């Protein structure tokens, strides 16, 4: 099955980019009005861009709800329910837009159960797209998907330990075990919320360096496979959505490959 939230987020990114392009085209023909005070500016572009975003989303996700800055200014209710809701600032930085000060952003948050699931901020003049998604909020490891890999060490003892860990994890029991075949992507799966934890012994620092910050910035945790702080040179890693699921460390049959920073053998 598709990652439904990713599908929605992809649409948010596409429509934010499209909206940003409209801001750029219209930047030379700005019609300025005011709202709550003489310095609370709004332009027709704010209104047009919000309309564009809402229409585009409605076509694809007809049941979703909206809270938009300019719709609220026009009298619509600003009520957050548990329903999937797009919270839109079509131009954040309208004063900048009016003055050609070069930071103007389309800002879209998406909420379900009153919790923001992802955010997209497109800084259109810089052409920079900022996005973030949450890790899973699952606390029960028995309702989790765990990712791992078999690695490239086929020594009997190592393979035994890998299978022993796998057997323990399966017997928790967890909903499933997966492996994307890339440590970096496995870590991004944790960061993006569709896998609760990833563990592996035998990775290298270059496999996990980028993913480690992506997991932490998404709200996840990193750990050593025996439960202490992660050591990126140790070739052992657990990346989890939270400390509770990270308790899978007690099921891991740990071992210690030669560290990445070990002195070269003569
Ligand atoms: O009106 P808008 O340009 O979408 O949003 C404004 C901008 O975020 C600005 O930096 C902040 O100081 C104002 O309080 C906001 O209202
Ligand atoms: Mg704003
Ligand atoms: Mg605005």
TrEMBL record:
<feature type="binding site">
    <location>
        <position position="207"/>
    </location>
    <ligand>
        <name>Mg(2+)</name>
    </ligand>
</feature>
<dbReference type="InterPro" id="IPR000760">
    <property type="entry name" value="Inositol_monophosphatase-like"/>
</dbReference>
<comment type="similarity">
    <text>Belongs to the inositol monophosphatase superfamily.</text>
</comment>
<keyword id="KW-0460">Magnesium</keyword>
<keyword id="KW-0479">Metal-binding</keyword>
<keyword id="KW-0378">Hydrolase</keyword>
<dbReference type="GO" id="GO:0007165">
    <property type="term" value="P:signal transduction"/>
</dbReference>
<keyword id="KW-0963">Cytoplasm</keyword>
<feature type="binding site">
    <location>
        <position position="69"/>
    </location>
    <ligand>
        <name>Mg(2+)</name>
    </ligand>
</feature>
<dbReference type="GO" id="GO:0005737">
    <property type="term" value="C:cytoplasm"/>
</dbReference>
<dbReference type="GO" id="GO:0046872">
    <property type="term" value="F:metal ion binding"/>
</dbReference>
<dbReference type="InterPro" id="IPR020583">
    <property type="entry name" value="Inositol_monoP_metal-BS"/>
</dbReference>
<dbReference type="Pfam" id="PF00459">
    <property type="entry name" value="Inositol_P"/>
</dbReference>
<comment type="subunit">
    <text>Homodimer.</text>
</comment>
<feature type="binding site">
    <location>
        <position position="91"/>
    </location>
    <ligand>
        <name>Mg(2+)</name>
    </ligand>
</feature>
<dbReference type="GO" id="GO:0006021">
    <property type="term" value="P:inositol biosynthetic process"/>
</dbReference>
<dbReference type="InterPro" id="IPR020552">
    <property type="entry name" value="Inositol_monoPase_Li-sen"/>
</dbReference>
<feature type="binding site">
    <location>
        <position position="89"/>
    </location>
    <ligand>
        <name>Mg(2+)</name>
    </ligand>
</feature>
<dbReference type="InterPro" id="IPR033942">
    <property type="entry name" value="IMPase"/>
</dbReference>
<dbReference type="GO" id="GO:0046854">
    <property type="term" value="P:phosphatidylinositol phosphate biosynthetic process"/>
</dbReference>
<feature type="binding site">
    <location>
        <position position="92"/>
    </location>
    <ligand>
        <name>Mg(2+)</name>
    </ligand>
</feature>
<comment type="pathway">
    <text>Polyol metabolism; myo-inositol biosynthesis; myo-inositol from D-glucose 6-phosphate: step 2/2.</text>
</comment>
<dbReference type="InterPro" id="IPR020550">
    <property type="entry name" value="Inositol_monophosphatase_CS"/>
</dbReference>
<protein>
    <recommendedName>
        <fullName>Inositol-1-monophosphatase</fullName>
        <ecNumber>3.1.3.25</ecNumber>
    </recommendedName>
</protein>
<keyword id="KW-0452">Lithium</keyword>
<dbReference type="GO" id="GO:0008934">
    <property type="term" value="F:inositol monophosphate 1-phosphatase activity"/>
</dbReference>
